[in-house]
Amino acid sequence: MPLSSSFIGNLTRGILKNLKPSSGKGRALSYWTVKYLKHLPQEKLSCIRWDRNKLWFFRSWELMHALDEIMGREIYRFEAANPAPRIIDCGANIGLSVLYFLKLYPQSRITAFEPDARNFDLLQKNLRPYNEAQLDLRPKAVWVHNGHISFDSRGGEGSKIADDGGTAVRCTRLADLLREPVDFLKIDIEGAEYAVLKDCAHLLRNVKHLFLEYHGQINHSNELTEMLELLRENGFDYYIREAADNVDYPYLNNRRREGFEQQLNIFAVRADSAVEAVS
Question: For the Methyltransferase FkbM domain, which residue ranges apply (predicted)?
C-alpha cells in the first residue's frame, strides 16, 4: 500500500475516533467536545449532545469532571438482582448520575433529591425525555427530619446545608425512605452525610449497595471512623478511593480556610446477597 494512502487512512481513523466518545470504561467525551467545553464562558446556560441526550449545564468544568467520573469511569456501576432496581439518589445535581442509572438499568425506579434550585431546574431539563412514572424528582435536601433547613445554594456542586444564613429549603428525613429494600443508595450531600448516616443507621440493613462521598476536616477524623464502623456493623464490605487531593503537604499546618480537607468516595456493598426489610 502506498505510504500516502496508509497515512491518509490512519489520519482519517484518528479523526473519526476523536469525533465520538469511546465506548465502555474510559473517556466519556470526544477530544473535540472537550476542546469546545474548555472555551465556553462559565455561568452561561449551555447545552451539548451526549449519547443522544441534550445536556444542559452552567459550568463546563464541573460537567467534564462529572462525566469523566460517572460515564467514563462508571464509578456507580453495580449488579442488580432484577431489571428494575430501586435507587435513591441523594444529591443528584444536574442529573448525570440518574442518566447513568437509566442507561445501566432502563427500568430502574429512581427517587432523586436536589435542593439547589438552579441545579434542580437543569435536572428536570436533562431528564425530560424519560418516563416520568419511574422517576421521582424532589427539590429537597435529605436530612434527619422533615420540614425546612438552611441551605447555601451555589448553583453547582458546592451547594450544601448551612449552619446559619443561607436560604430555607424543604428537607426530607432519609430514614423514612429506607424502610423497604433499596438496591442502590447514593449519598453525596456535601458534608451532611455524617448526621444523615447516623440517623438512618438502624435501617442500613435494607440497603444492598451504598455509595457515600465523605467530606470532612482533618481534625474531625472521628466522624469518618464512626461512619466506617456503622457500615461494618450493618454487614457492609467497603472500598475507599480518594475523591479529591485537597491538601498539598499533609505534614505541614496548611489548613484550608474554606471547603473540605478530605474528600473520599466510599463504595460499600452488603456481604450477604439478600436484603430483608427492617422497619
Answer: 89-238
As beta bridge partners, residue 212 has 187, 266
Q: Is residue 108 part of a domain?
A: yes
Q: How far apart are CA 183 and CA 210, in angstroms?
A: 8
Taking the mean position of all CA atoms in its chain, how far away is CA 44? 22
Percent of the chain predicted with pLDDT > 90: 64
Residue 141's contacts (CB-CB under 8 Å, 6 or more residues apart) are 113, 115, 149, 151, 161, 169, 170, 171, 172, 189, 192
Are the beta carbons of 202 and 144 closer than 8 angstroms? no
The answer to whether residue 31 sits within a structural domain is yes
What's the average model confidence in pLDDT over 24-31? 72
Domain boundary, last residue among 73, 91, 125: 73
48 is written with which cell numbers? 451539548
Strands 167-173 and 147-152: antiparallel
Q: What pLDDT, in 10s, does the model give residues 193-212?
A: 999 999 999 999 999 999 99
Q: At 149, which helix (H) or strand (E)?
A: strand 147-152
On whether both 32 and 134 belong to a single domain, the answer is: no
- Is 249:202 a contact under the CB 8 Å cutoff? no
Looking at every residue in the chain, the average pLDDT score rounds to: 86
Q: Is pLDDT at 155 greater than 80 in this prediction?
A: no
